[in-house]
Design a protein that fits this description.
The complex is a heterodimer of chains A (about 325) and B (about 550). Chain A is an all-alpha fold and about 325 residues long. Chain A is built from twelve helices and no strands. The longest helix of chain A is centred in the last third of the chain and has 38 residues, at about 225-265. Chain B is globular and about 65 Å long. The chains are: A mainly alpha (about 325), B alpha+beta (about 550). Chains A and B meet through α2, α3, α5, α7 and α10 of A and α1, α7 and α13 of B.
Chain lengths: ~325, ~550
């Protein structure tokens, strides 16, 4: 365990240069990207003089290095700055939005793993049968249909026609577990469709490989039950690639959350990012990307740790 | 690294791993809970029947209506601020916060008396000093207000409830200016806030209107909450436009920002919201077919799309070149493209002012009457077109503007013009059209946009034709003659004179062609039938009630 803790500390420390690079890259990218928040604030109607005055009042007329330096100094003090548009602190906006996004991602992950892993296992066990073909077909469908189409279809059927679930919105967990859950089911299913397909395909492929191993044959010869072979002997050894995909898929979820949050009007970080990018709200974009990149690094760290739990042969 | 099998760990470490896993899961589960105190705004519990759930047409990112001209910001402004004058259904001014006014014999001094009992949401009384500061801020930003400022001598507050405006010239249309409906609206705010420069945003929302802004429930880009201002004293007259009694029937108004039109329509159908501000034309028939929903047109003036020339660089620095293109325009083609081809959502309008108003009349010799491509080619050649590159800047993410650019692009190609389309997002387009350089240095020649009909309903506010040059709207058309006529309109003594002058301005605009008007389209509003009392022409919260 001492080695593991040392590894965690090393990894956490190694995020610092990564985050610094991300910060520099994003700041530079926004600097060279076309568009000007002062023009957007002033609107279509504004005169050049109005725009210039707004630009000055926002400090956007100052040189790149000065602005970058000031931003870095503020970030080091824990201050992500204020939105150019709403003047609300970026940290406050992120704090307001983090719960819906985190809820959506966790719920999606849970649904995806709970649905996809058994599908992958059963599909491998019954490889070549109609059940397998059906599952593979569903997986292809999951990959092929865009998230927003799945979202609209689910909303149409379960919210508009059957009226089982709400069409849109988010209810904080503090307002009750059931209202929170009701608002999350449809977005999680639509966001999870691709994810379910991905995990099911990987699980099936790795299970097929593992089921051909000698020790599985030995277990069968010893009379171990089929369920035990599948879910204890085989799945455990097939889980490393699955865990990898789950980890990598977090990036997929972050991207998908932008669309899902827009379709279901969930006030999460994805929508905040989209709105900020469209408006060129630089401090918000920089703040959100820093948070996302930090989250991604942490998720990868967690995945590495889980490897050691699932497979004791792995150590750092 | 993820598959890094760097060595063998003793199998006996299993118990520790489980402990670690349990701790990790517990930490993961705790994260949402930990975020709650930060994430959870104060959610007031109230009787749902006393709450109006409203979906605005855009996200409210800027709250200061004196800082941003965004329509949604102005709409927000009408919830919490009030104006000295308002405009009735015929766009005629009537006192609103003002009890009335006395005009001196020479028409240069206006004594405006404030109604009794007006209070700001912080409890302070509304004073003439607040009005002076608010009007000064407005005059530093609004194009019409700048015209007024040019004629202003002084503004004084001889008493707390009396505002004295002294002008250098007689100005009969002063109440019209003070009752503007479209950006920038001269909302009255406390002096301490109104003293902020108009190019700096005010974030403390203190007005004297029928609803107050609930700051601690505001989630930027998601939810805006207003509560009834109990100390508001409405006028006794029936509500009409932005005049009359602004009675708040709901205790609470919640704006729910729903960025996706299909989701907003579904939410309205499911009864999750009461009122959707602007229905997407494609979805209007669907909603109209729902027996619980009413789709209606509150704003008869609609929106006026236009083709804007950059009048400062070749080839369209030559008025003959701009004029040459008008014969390629078929307004129906443009209007169909942005309304899904639904003829009930648009009308052709061969005028620079909205058709249906006193000024919105086509010329007798209507240059938009019939498209003629031979005439376009001939006129271009006569104007001296030598194949110079023409750049259209087109915001591809703006569904009611992007098709306009695409149509013009095809028409110019057909006319033999060397045309290039620069497609970008709205933010990129706005930045690009501020570039006054040549096209080789990032400039532009043609841009499309639209204005609310109310926003261009009379000459001083009609930036499609104003000739202010570098001080005016993008395209920077400059015309001393046009500005002289605008001044004459401001000082005209009668409505008959104003209509005549406006017609002359329109004639000049068709001769010099700073823009080409592309007609008029309409956007309907939709609400549950349980909601009544909507007041045209804007989606405003007063008088609205649950049946």
């Amino acid at each position: 365990m001492k080695q593991l803790y040392a590894f965690i500390i090393r990894r956490v420390v190694s995020t610092i240069p990564v985050m610094a690079f991300v910060a520099l890259f994003v700041f530079s990218l926004l600097y060279v990207a076309p568009g000007d928040p002062a023009s957007i604030i002033a609107g279509d109607h504004a005169t050049p003089a109005d725009i210039e005055r707004i630009r000055q009042s926002l400090g956007l007329d100052r040189p790149y290095l000065v602005r970058f330096g000031e931003w870095v100094m503020r970030v080091l003090q824990g201050d992500l700055g204020n939105s150019i548009f709403s003047s609300v602190p970026v940290a406050q906006q992120i704090a307001q939005r983090i719960e819906p996004t985190l809820s959506l991602m966790i719920m999606t992950l849970v649904i995806a793993v709970v649905v996809a892993v058994p599908i992958g296992v059963v599909s491998a066990w019954l490889a070549g049968t109609w059940v397998d073909r059906l599952f593979v077909g569903f997986a292809v469908l999951g990959f092929s249909i865009p998230v927003f189409v799945v979202g609209y279809l689910l909303a149409y059927v379960f919210a508009l026609q059957l009226q089982w679930l709400p069409v849109q919105g988010y209810t904080p967990l503090s307002n009750g577990f059931l209202p929170w859950l009701r608002n999350l089911i449809l977005p999680s299913l639509s966001l999870g469709a691709v994810y379910i397909a991905l995990i099911a395909r990987i699980t099936r492929a790795t299970m097929l490989e593992v089921l051909g191993q000698d020790y599985i044959r030995t277990a069968e010869a010893k009379g171990v039950s089929r369920r035990s072979i599948l879910f204890v002997h085989a799945l455990k050894n097939a889980s490393i690639p699955v865990i990898t995909v789950v980890g990598v898929g977090v990036a997929l979820l972050i991207g998908g959350a932008v669309v899902t949050e827009s379709v279901f009007a969930i006030p999460g970080l994805g929508r905040l990012t989209l709105d900020a990018v469209l408006r060129r709200d630089y401090p918000v974009i920089q703040g959100v990307i820093l948070v996302f990149s930090f989250a991604y690094v942490i998720v990868n760290l967690i995945v590495d740790i889980i490897y050691t739990i699932v497979d004791p042969r792995i150590r750092y | 690294m993820k598959n890094g099998n760097r060595g063998r760990a003793p199998a006996s470490k299993g118990v520790n791993r489980r402990q670690f896993l349990a701790a990790s899961l517990a930490a993961t589960a705790a994260v949402p809970a930990m975020s709650l105190p930060l994430a959870r705004p104060a959610l007031a519990q109230s009787d749902p029947s006393r709450t109006l759930k409203f979906v605005p047409h855009a996200s409210l990112s800027i709250m200061d209506p004196g800082f941003s001209a965004a329509g949604v910001t102005t709409q927000h402004g009408f919830h919490i601020f009030d104006t000295l004058y308002g405009l009735d259904a015929n766009l005629r001014p009537r006192p609103q916060m003002a009890e009335g006014h006395v005009e001196s014999d020479d028409g240069r001094t206006w004594d405006i008396t404030l109604r009794e009992g007006l209070r700001f949401h912080d409890g302070e009384p509304v004073r003439a000093q607040d009005c002076i500061a608010s009007l000064k801020r407005w005059m530093s930003r609004d194009v019409f207000a700048k015209d007024i400022a040019g004629m202003l001598d002084t503004m004084e507050a001889p008493e707390d409830r009396k505002l004295r405006i002294k002008l250098r010239q007689r100005l009969p249309i002063l109440p019209l200016a003070l009752g503007r409906l479209s950006p920038f609206v001269p909302f009255i705010m406390p002096e301490r806030l109104a003293n902020t420069e108009a190019t700096t945003q005010i974030t403390e929302m203190i007005g004297s209107g029928p609803y107050r802004f609930v700051a601690d429930e505001h989630v930027v880009g998601s939810r805006v909450v207003y509560s009834k201002f109990d100390q508001y004293v409405p006028r006794q007259e029936a509500p009409e436009g932005t005049t009359g009694g602004k009675v708040a029937h709901f205790d609470r108004i919640e704006w729910q920002i729903i960025p996706d039109a299909a989701t907003a329509a579904a939410a309205l159908q499911a009864g999750e919201v009461d009122w959707w501000d602007q229905v997407h034309p494609d979805l209007a028939p669907l909603l109209a077919g729902n027996s619980d929903i009413e789709v209606r047109r509150l704003d008869p003036y609609g929106y006026m799309p236009l083709l804007r020339f950059n009048s400062t660089i070749p080839p369209f620095d030559n008025p003959a070149m701009r004029r040459a293109l008008i014969r390629m325009i078929d307004q129906t083609e443009y209007l169909s493209a942005i309304t899904g081809g639904n003829p009930s959502q648009f009308q052709t309008c061969h005028a620079f002012f909205p058709c249906g108003t006193e000024y919105g009349t086509p010329l007798a010799s209507d240059p938009l009457a019939e498209p003629d491509f031979d005439a376009v080619k001939r006129d271009l050649a006569e104007a001296g077109y030598r194949g110079e590159k023409v750049v259209i800047v087109n915001p591809s993410d703006f569904p009611t503007i992007a098709p306009l650019g695409e149509i013009t692009f095809e028409l110019l190609k057909k006319a033999g013009v060397n045309v290039e389309m620069v497609s970008t997002d709205w933010g990129g387009a706005l930045a690009r059209v501020q570039n006054r350089e040549t096209v080789e240095k990032g400039g532009w020649n043609i841009y499309h946009s639209w204005w609310g009909g109310l926003a261009v309903s009379f000459p001083p506010v009609n930036t499609m034709i104003r000739g202010l040059g570098a001080k005016g709207w993008t395209g920077w058309y400059e015309s001393a003659d046009m500005e002289a006529m605008n001044s004459a309109w401001l000082l005209a003594e009668s409505e008959t004179d104003r209509i005549r002058i406006a017609a002359q301005m329109q004639e000049l605009a068709f001769r010099e062609m700073p823009s080409i008007p592309l007609g008029q389209f309409f956007i309907d509003t939709a609400h549950r039938k349980s909601i009544t009392g909507l007041v045209a022409p804007r989606c405003v919260p007063w008088n609205v009630r649950r049946a």
